[in-house]
Amino acid sequence: MDNKLPLIKTCAIEDFSMEYLHYPSNGPDLLLLHATGFFPWLWHPIAAVLSDSYNIIVPYYCDHREGEPEDGGVLWSILAEDMDKFCASLNIKNPFAVGHSMGGAVLTLCAALHDFRPKSMVLIEPIFLPPAAYTAKITVEQHPLASKSINRRNGWDNIDEAYSYFKSKKLFSRWDNEMLDLYIKHGMSVAEDGKLKLLIHPRKEASLFMGVNAIDPWHLLPKVECPMFVVEGDFSDNKTFIDYKKVTGIFPNGSYYKVKDAGHLLPMEKPHVTSELIKEFFEGNLQK
Q1: How far is Cα 277 from Cα 271, in angstroms, rounded to an integer?
Q2: Which of 279, 287, 273, 285 is nearest to 56 (CA)?
Q3: Which of left, alpha, beta for 71 (phi over 0: left; psi -120 to 50: alpha)?
Q4: Confidence band (pLDDT; 50, 70, 90) for 42?
């Protein structure tokens, strides 16, 4: 896949700029949005496969805004607005779009609230919390995800120690090896003494998790009328609080698929399966 390495670009938009990866092609535009605490390079194995058919844009859309977790964090409603401006700035009209976790939720908000009009979307385990969560006022310590992320370890003596650490964690245990390589290479900084730190600081990740409460998306789902493909992993912990079949039924043109032997981080665990599902759905050939 090295011959399909992307161009690294920056888009200046009003008072901020957004970095993105670009896999240029004469095909239709395809927008890929990453999950909370992650970054565009984790789409690379999938984008490299799809780049024969699509002009792929992968924005790093959560590092351009500041927000303290104790003050409500980085609001997902603002990220959706920024994504609309990003697409307008690059003249991206009616793209295909794929969002994972936070990325799926932000795409949905963008399509429901702004001028963003995708041809079709794939949402991989989008984060739509139970309705009561959007009216509850909770602290960082009370938030089930922010409370964990803000206390994440953020220091390793060398690459080998980092690999061993992540491999020992449930969250990373089923990751494809190439994906873990990309996480270490592009998601961490290396000091002169060889010590590593996360590029996305634990407080930044906690701020992103806190921002989910910015707007209740449930009344907005019926406004997204393009074909929607909702995908979940059968081992995902999200099934305890998100009913993805219910989500699918609210979209006017929704369909649902469950991937066997996969968790919430499906693109990192099964990039080949993910790319095939995306391709088949967008081409209208998916066999369910």
Answers
A1: 10
A2: 279
A3: alpha
A4: very high
Tokens of 132: 């009561």
Query: Each residue of 196-211: b (16+ CB within 10 Å) or e?
Result: bebebebbbbbbbbbb
Q: Given pLDDT bands bounded at 50, 70 and 90, which one contains residue 3?
A: low
Q: In this predicted structure, what is the pLDDT of residue 152? A: 94
Q: What is the pLDDT of residue 1?
A: 47
Tokens 């996305």 map to which residue?
A: 200
SS3 232: strand
d(CA 205, CA 148) in angstroms, rounded, equals: 10
CA distances, 253 to each of 10, 166, 196, 233 (Å) = 34, 38, 45, 21
Tokens, residue 38: 């992650």
Closest CA to 173 of 160, 158, 163: 163
Euclidean distance between CA atoms 256 and 38, whole angstroms: 25
Backbone angles phi, psi at 55, to 5 degrees: -90, 105
CA 220 to chain centre: 19
Mean pLDDT throughout 247-275? 97
User: 228 has which bridge partners?
Assistant: 121, 254
DSSP of 176-230: -HHHHHHHHHHHEEE-TTS-EEESS-HHHHHHHHHGGGGS--GGGGGG--S-EEE
Q: What is the pLDDT of residues 57-75, one digit of tens each?
A: 999 988 889 999 999 999 9
Nearest to 232 by CA among 277, 166, 272, 167: 277
38 has pLDDT over 80:
yes
What is d(CA 127, CA 100) in angstroms, rounded to the nearest whole number? 9
Mean pLDDT across the chain: 94
